[in-house]
Amino acid sequence: MFYVFFLVEMILLFLFSRLDKKILKISVLLLILLLVMISGFRYGIGTDYYTYEYIYNNIAESSYVEPGYRYVNIALKYLGCSYATSVLFFAFVTNVLLIYFIKQYSIDFVFSIVLYVLFNYYFISFNAVRQMVAIAIFLAGIQFVFKKQYLRFLLITACAALFHYSTFIGVLYLLCRINKKNIYMIIWLFSIPFIVLPIQNVIIKFMPASFPYAVYFTSSFFTETSNAAVLKLVVPNLFVGLAFYFRSGFNKKMEIFWLNLFIFSTAFANLAHGVNVLIRLNYVFQISEIIFYPLFISKIQKFQRPVVSWLMLGYFIVFYIFTVIIQGAQGVVPYQSIFFA
């Protein structure tokens, strides 16, 4: 029931934010507090909560985790902090940086925050702690892509990778500045057959058992393909088709960048379908959809926007209900807090 009330609160705050600017400011503040507190004060939920607790309690010997995550936790432990403090610290950093990213680039701040929750990126941070804090740091640095300060961008990317090495793939963001629409159309069309092809089985068949990360492809956790994964692909691919139709409306460089990135991330999602390890690699690109959807809505005719907005919000709510309330979003249901565990 907790996540039902959470959904209702998100919808109400979204509606209240539409009334006037004063209520918008209050709604934003409440949203930020809500997101940080629910994530920061969680207890025992998520597939990796106790794994991270073990790592924290044995952090001096945990050399297999990335150095950024390791040394931050060493510092926290040196200060006498409990594991609960580590959870709160990373929840705060991740959510604040992602909210900063949304504030910088979304034309509809509250809508994008709601999408951040409804599309599960918020709940992913309960499990993929290192990866999501790395993505949050990385996204704080993409401003340097737009400023053409590429060395700074690469330095921020390297800093983010200290928390999760997969973030290095984010350097491909630079390719999305190339304004060649045919390239993105070809990549997207090429990716569509992979939605139904058994890529996971092919990878497992040809992957040598000695490969260090083979376990991630063969374990039951990563080989299970959720029905939600198929559901998640329908709307993005539909919007890619619509985006090519409305492409002339994206005339600013930053708008074209978000369009290109959305098409690229959708193609990546198609290619990765059924391979959860690759799906996780795509998080750094796919999270751009929370910026793209409000941008796309702004490009359609004014009288159509309310209808399209409500239809999209309805789909996002259904996705949330299916993935979080029904399926549990990989162990986040039921919610438990350090205050009432």
Automatic annotation (TrEMBL):
Keywords: Membrane, Transmembrane, Transmembrane helix
Entry keyword annotation includes Transmembrane: yes
Entries under Pfam families matching the protein: EpsG
Source species, domain of life: Bacteria
TM regions (residue ranges): 23-45, 83-101, 113-146, 152-176, 183-207, 227-245, 257-275, 281-298, 310-329
Protein name (database record): EpsG family protein
Organism for this UniProt entry: Treponema vincentii F0403
UniProt lineage: Bacteria, Pseudomonadati, Spirochaetota, Spirochaetia, Spirochaetales
